[in-house]
Amino acid sequence: MPKSTVIQKAVNTECGRCLWPSQTSKNDQKYNFRADKGSDLPGGKVELIIQANKNAENKGVRENVQQDSHRIVAKVVVDPTNDPSGSSVEDDALNSFEKKN
């Protein structure tokens, strides 16, 4: 995921909209997961929501999402102003994933 692009896109995107990859059935299959815009938070921070795609190429991902298509795999908070490159996104996403699974 191109973190800095996704973070900057999140600033002007409605809550619940897909940030990455662009929403097509081909991308849903290829990337297995997507990043959606979560809530706008105080101080200009934004939530990024990671969810599995129901058309995922990976069988395990696809089977899991069929049980709950709205399940949040990971959730991270980003600060587009003070950390536009998203230096902590990967670690935060992994920590969130481990807590949720």
Overall tally of domains:
1
Overall 3D shape: globular
Q: Spell out the helices and strands N to C.
A: HEHEEHEH
How many beta-strand segments? 4
Estimated radius of gyration: 13 Å
Order of strands across the biggest sheet?
1-2-3-4
The residue fraction in helices comes out at 25-40%
Poorly predicted parts: none
**Biggest sheet statistics:** 4 strands, antiparallel
In whole angstroms, the N-to-C terminal distance is 21 Å
Count of DSSP H/I helices:
4
Gist?
The protein contains four helices and four strands; from the N terminus they run H-E-H-E-E-H-E-H. By secondary structure, the chain is α+β, with helices and mostly antiparallel strands.
List key phrases describing it.
single chain, 101 residues, alpha+beta, 4-stranded antiparallel beta sheet, 4 strands, 37% helix, 25% strand
What's the arrangement of secondary structure elements?
Blueprint (H helix, E strand, L loop, with lengths): L2 H9 L6 E3 L4 H7 L1 E8 L5 E7 L6 H9 L4 E7 L10 H12 L1
Antiparallel strand pairs: 1-2, 2-3, 3-4
Would you write up a description of this structure?
With about 100 residues, this protein is of the alpha+beta class. The chain has one domain (about 5-100). About 35% of the residues lie in helices and about 25% in strands. It has helices at about 5-10, 25-30, 60-65, 90-100; strands at about 20, 35-40, 45-50, 70-80. A four-stranded antiparallel beta sheet has the order 1-2-3-4. β2 (about 35-40) and β3 (about 45-50) form a beta hairpin. The longest helix is centred in the C-terminal third of the chain and has 12 residues, at about 90-100. It is globular, with a radius of gyration of 13 Å. The chain starts with a helix and ends with a helix.
